[in-house]
Amino acid sequence: MHIPLAEPPAAAGAEHLEQQQAAITRLGHELRALVEATVRTAASADTLHRVADGVRHVTGQLTGRRRARTEIPEVDGFPGGPRMYSPVVGAGSPLAPPVRITPTDDGLIGHCTLGIAHEGPPGYGHGGMSAMLLDELMGQACTAAGTPGLTVSLQMRYHQPIPLETPLRIVGRVTGTDKRKIFAAGTITTQADPSTDLVTADAVFITPDPDRTRALFPGLEEEA
Ligand SMILES: CCCCCCCC(=O)SCCNC(=O)CCNC(=O)[C@H](O)C(C)(C)COP(=O)(O)OP(=O)(O)OC[C@H]1O[C@@H](n2cnc3c(N)ncnc32)[C@H](O)[C@@H]1OP(=O)(O)O
């Protein structure tokens, strides 16, 4: 394994991190509510303009230092720790459902519900969302197995549309390894009917060699 897995936060800073994560989670929750309201509303153009002015004003309040592109946020651990702004699991991301992940004997299970903001065909999930969910679950399963890697191949099969506003169950597991290559598989079902596969996937991940890891993730070096 070439990518060092994230350490848990130091006890001294743990309280500060918890407060920061709680605030990020709260803002993420409100932003997801705003996104949901935005894509459902039938408000008049006047109202939309007024809201847009208000949102611009609110955005202007997020001032101060902005993190650099390759910087790992202090509230995160990578790989193998929290990802507060991930578009899949990030409690602070307005783009994320967000998926809650729990380990199993055989890999990982994720739970989430997609909303209208994730719509592809009317009433159903966007196929790209399914790919994102499965890529994340399989990628995190690689990390959980001690072999973190980047996706080099993702084969999707869409058997049935994913219903929106319906609790989903996403499974990711490692099926084999070959030197730096990790093979993984995943499925999406509803929570109510976990035996009917809606979407399945196979993927190949590769653990980059140390030089490539340093070049891709300079933030890992700074953390160490
Ligand atoms: C915490 C984690 C959450 C993760 C969540 C989601 C995951 C992601 O979204 S990752 C982002 C999307 N993926 C990427 O951006 C990756 C882009 N690709 C790359 O940067 C490079 O390909 C990289 C660094 C992964 C590997 O490059 P490199 O180390 O040069 O690999 P390379 O030497 O070409 O190949 C290594 C082996 O894999 C094989 N291989 C390469 N590509 C593939 C492929 N598509 N399928 C099968 N095998 C492949 C090669 O044949 C080689 O095999 P062998 O050792 O037997 O000869």
Report what the structure shows:
The chain is α+β, with helices and mostly antiparallel strands. It is 34% helix and 23% strand. The chain has 5 helices and 6 strands, in the order ααββαββββαα. It has a 6-stranded antiparallel beta sheet, with helices on one face. Strand 4 (167-178) and strand 5 form a beta hairpin. Octanoyl-coenzyme A is lined by residues 79, 135-136, 139-140, 143, 150-153, 179-181, 204, 206, 208-209, 212.
What distinguishing features does this structure have?
6 strands; globular; hydrolase; hydrolase activity; cytoplasm; Acyl-coenzyme A thioesterase THEM4; alpha+beta; binds octanoyl-coenzyme A; single chain; 224 residues; Thiol Ester Dehydrase, Chain A; 5 helices
